[in-house]
Structures are given as structure tokens and as C-alpha cells.
Write the C-alpha cells for this entry.
Amino acid sequence: MNTKQFAALPFRIRGKEIRVLLITTRKKRRWSVPKGWPIAGCEPPRTAEIEAYEEAGLIGRAKPKSVGRYIHHKRKRKIICEVELFPFEVSKREKQWPEKGQRDAIWISARRAARMVHKPQLRRLIQQFNRSKRREVISANKAAHTSEADNPTAASIKA
């Protein structure tokens, strides 16, 4: 049986570093990302946001465009899931959430997160996201630095 799930790739930017939150799966305790079944009436990015909250207490916004897809086998039920992964920019983490205590969670660099996840396809998606997001952050930092250099008054006001 083939079916779909939707997942969040929780991230935040600290300086020039992209940090990702990984959670453990409930049964095998492997590092992964929040994911779940489609929710009636919800668009896929919204479903990813809900899963991020339920599984890790995360509040934020999923990007409308996915990073890609990976395959997940639910062996006990003999189901093959195609999981669509949405970048999820985290704004905060709640103190309480529905699945608190059922999973471990860790904030780590995207590079390290890619090494820690079990699924090779998920690993490649995290690496790809890290490369593209780093380019975006570097470009934004250069643009901000250039505009300050072009306008010394703006730079002195910030200081």
C-alpha cells in the first residue's frame, strides 16, 4: 500500500549557522523529524506545522514549498509512505505539548543532523536544505553589510 505523510524540518538561524531540531521516533528511538498523516481540510504545510507542535511543541511557520520527498516504510502495517518535507522556521517552543515525554529532542547544526538521521533520503534532503539556506543567509548578510557600507549614517544609528 502506498500513501502520503507530511513532515516538518524544524530550523532556526543562529548567526551564519542553520540549526535543526531532530526528535526520536517513539518505538525505535531513531533520530528523525516530526511527521504525520494528512489532516482533513489542511494543506500539507499546515499539517507539517501541526505535527511539529504535537510531537515537539514547536511554534512557527512551514514554508509553502517542500524541500522534497523521502520514502518511509511502516513495517508492522506493511505500508510504504511517501513523506513530503517542509522547511519549518521555528519561532518558539511551548513548555507543554501533546506528545511531551514520548520523544527526545535536540537542536544541532544541520550538517550534524544530516549525519544523525537513519534514512539516507532524509539525510540528502537535510544536506540540500542546509546548502541552499546557507547561501541565502550569506547573501542576506552580504547585502546588509553592503548597505551599511554604502550608508554610514545607517550603520552609526544601529550602533
Remarks:
- The radius of gyration is 18 Å.
- The CA atoms of residues 73 and 80 lie 5 Å apart.
- Helices lie at 44-56, 110-116, 120-150, 152-158.
